[in-house]
């Protein structure tokens, strides 16, 4: 597998960071998590950026960071933020600069992972009932799906592996 950049996209909690790290180790490529990249550049957490400057400023910063990280790394695994593909023409930009993979996970699974992690650490989710959480995620996904499904490859798995994803990418490269 030789293609330059692999971008992982999907809902918060879908496993972009987890699978991204595994894929980077498997392929011996650098791993960039866009949220962490932004936090390093800005010197504050994504949560603080949202609180201090609001979402629209965050989205501009995020779009810029996506372009900077892309220019910085010819070969890398890049885990994007949950909303990255949905703003500033980012999904088209991603598809012009590498292979994109949508990690598709059912909302019920995402919610059970988030509960295990502790929902209180996510400001937009804390205090919501199960029904409210489900509705919030369903609405978010139904809007975002149009962007996520522009990805080169959709990987729908509850138990994803770097090895299996590489096979899917190889199959796609052969067919291309
Ligand atoms: N295949 C899996 N099975 C079960 N739990 C998983 C799996 N992949 C990731 N997780 C767990 O789900 C949570 C979310 O995973 P991860 O942080 O990788 O997702 P993410 O898409 O990067 O989320 P975020 O948008 O918040 O950055 C973590 O607690 C992680 O340990
Ligand atoms: O789903 C979203 O809109 C977000 C997901 C995170 O990765 C962060 O990029 C931020 O919290 C916004
Ligand atoms: Mg992540």
From TrEMBL:
One of its GO terms (cellular component) is cytosol. GO terms for biological process: amino acid biosynthetic process; aromatic amino acid family biosynthetic process; chorismate biosynthetic process. It holds the Pfam family SKI. Mg(2+) binds at residue 17. Its EC number is 2.7.1.71. Pathway: Metabolic intermediate biosynthesis; chorismate biosynthesis; chorismate from D-erythrose 4-phosphate and phosphoenolpyruvate: step 5/7. ATP binds at residues 13-18, 122. Catalyzes the specific phosphorylation of the 3-hydroxyl group of shikimic acid using ATP as a cosubstrate. Monomer. This is Shikimate kinase. It comes from Adhaeribacter swui. The lineage of its organism: Bacteria, Pseudomonadati, Bacteroidota, Cytophagia, Cytophagales.
């Amino acid at each position: 597998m030789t293609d330059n950049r692999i971008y992982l996209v999907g809902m918060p909690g879908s496993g972009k960071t987890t699978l991204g790290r595994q894929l980077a180790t498997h392929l011996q490529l650098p791993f960039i998590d866009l949220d962490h990249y932004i936090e390093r550049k800005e010197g504050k957490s994504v949560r603080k950026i949202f609180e201090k400057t609001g979402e629209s400023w965050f989205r501009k910063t995020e779009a810029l960071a996506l372009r900077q990280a892309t220019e910085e790394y010819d070969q890398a695994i890049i885990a994007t933020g949950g909303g990255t593909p949905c703003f500033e023409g980012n999904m088209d930009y991603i598809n012009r600069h590498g292979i994109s993979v949508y990690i598709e996970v059912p909302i019920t699974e995402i919610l059970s992972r988030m509960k295990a992690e502790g929902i209180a650490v996510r400001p937009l989710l804390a205090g919501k009932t199960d029904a409210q959480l489900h509705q919030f995620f369903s609405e978010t996904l139904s809007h975002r799906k149009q962007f996520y499904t522009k990805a080169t490859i959709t990987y729908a798995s509850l138990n994803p592996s770097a090895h299996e994803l590489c096979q899917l990418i190889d199959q796609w490269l052969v067919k291309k």
